[in-house]
Amino acid sequence: MILNIRSILIIFVVTFSDFALADVSCGIAQINQILVYNDKIVVLHGNTYRGLGFTSTAKNQDKKLSVVLTAKASGAQVEMRYPDDYDCATHNYGRDPTMVILN
What we know:
The chain is of the alpha+beta class. It is 28% helix and 36% strand. The protein has two helices and five strands; from the N terminus they run H-E-E-E-H-E-E. It is globular.
């Protein structure tokens, strides 16, 4: 019985360990530009260019693009979050956001 509870606990921790890693929030700002460079979608988030993903291969790309287009059309602000080693202070087209939040 203890082995079963312990096994369940280990499975639970391994399954949800990715949620413990904190994403980097690059703040809340307006989307000032949306551009496609070759197959890459790039947005001007505030004063910094950030990659949004590839037009054909990125997972959930259509959902992220929908949020960005809605924000641009309505003048709303967006928060963009990236993996925990992302540097928000530099222009970076190579990393895709883990989350795009319409505020």
